[in-house]
Fold this protein.
Amino acid sequence: MLPDAAAYSGAQPLRILTEPGRQARERVSVRRAGGSALLTGVVLLILVAVAGVVLGAWRFTVIDTGSMRPTLNPGDVAVLGSESIADLKRGQIVAFHPPGELRLTVMHRVFSIHRIRGAVIIQTKGDANNATDPWHARLTGNTVWRETQKLSTVGYLAAWSQQRPVRFGLLIVIVILMVSISLGWVWRPVTRRKG
């Protein structure tokens, strides 16, 4: 037997009281804060790296040959620090220009050091090479760039990012992210306080 509809004609519809979207707002707030923190961290990391290069604290070099395997592999990025030529030791990995090759930078291990009348002349060898390099490089100035650390396989990304369309695309993505986060903070919903 079905209930009589007339018995319920004056009844109010059932209303469930909830706080609409409170959990959803909290999730959006956490995501927004996480995105802002991530973007801020990436921007700060880039600024620190660029500032270090501009101030001469370090340099980065992409390894593109296998002459220093297994220490430095193609695709690695070598982080170079400045060191006094007086402190240069046999066995260190240094970046230098071979004689007559001002546009070519080589990173090899120091095999021997000769200090003659104020000049420093080094002979080098790649770890994967069977013999020393055919040249003797003369170091000029008071400092030399030596390898202090390596970032494995980051060089592929660095080489890829040197292409003009990729750099332009990355710039557009960064600008869109910054504008999106800024507008998100400006247009965020106003929370009403109960009271």
Observations:
- The beta strands are 58-62, 77-84, 93-96, 106-116, 119-125, 137-139, 143-151.
- The chain has a mean pLDDT of 84.
